Amino acid sequence: MKLSAPIYRLKREAKRLSREENIPLHKALNRIAAKEGFSRWSLLVARLSATAPARTLLARLKPGDLLLLGGRPGHGKMQLSLQLTIEAIKSGCQGAFFTLEYGPTDVLDLFKKIEVNPTDFRDTFSLHDADTICAEYIMAKLSAMPTNTLAVIDYLQILDQRRENPELIEQIRTLKAFANEHSFILVFISQIDRSYNESIRKCPGLDDVRLPNPLDLRLFSKACFLNNGELEFLSIM
Fold it and tell me: 44 pLDDT exceeds 90?
């Protein structure tokens, strides 16, 4: 199913419509759904869930994978990473979310955006938002978790922001070996360089990853890039 915009943008448009025309939000949502070819918003959401990109992406991952998930701000990479975590949990895995940028309230907002109740996953989802997050911290928290755990790291470019942390390339090498040993899937959210030109290519690629510090992107086994609702998947190894 191809929507005219990501679902979070459609919801934002419905809220704007609700305010401007002074109508209940559910009516505004239904009007937006009608423009997308659905009689009700609930049908749009149900259809989207059945064909969710996160489910397709998860099917392409295997234990030991390091996934690079890149996109510019506002293009849905945070929502997709959380959806991917939830899909992994639904398949019987544990999920962990490490973030140097978001706090608990921000993550709760993400749950709302993807229309998931976080209390349904209180025993299978863990959030870590310490400012000391690095490879050593991540491994310490994951070491007691079962195989096939999927962990999201937000985000790649600031893992080595503290001077006492190892260089970024050393941290990724260490985490790659750790993921292989424990059969974990690690998802690294990544910034995209400002030089990326969407008029030339609909989605960013490896050449567009912002790298303020040296890093061999061949350490990642898979990559996924987002832009304006488009998604491109790449096998690196």
Answer: no
Region 191-206: mean pLDDT is: 94
- How many structural domains are present in the chain? 2
Residues 27 and 20: their CA atoms lie apart, in Å, by: 13
Cα angle 193, 196, 202 (rounded to 5 degrees) comes to: 135
Is the domain of 201 the same as that of 147? yes
85-123 tens-digit pLDDT: 999 999 999 999 999 999 999 999 999 888 788 999 999
The DSSP line for 77-114 is: HHHHHHHHHHHHHHTT--EEEEESS--HHHHHHHHHHT
Q: 59 has which bridge partners?
A: none
Q: Is residue 2 part of a domain?
A: no
Mean pLDDT of the region 148-153:
97
- Spatial separation of the C-alpha atoms in residues 164 and 9, rounded to whole Å: 40
Nearest to 176 by CA among 234, 208, 222: 222
> Measured between alpha carbons, how far is 197 from 200 in angstroms, rounded to an integer?
6
Do 100 and 59 sit in the same domain of this protein? yes
Neighbouring C-beta atoms of residue 215, cutoff 10 Å:
22
Mean pLDDT over 63-68 rounds to: 98
CA 18 to chain centre: 29
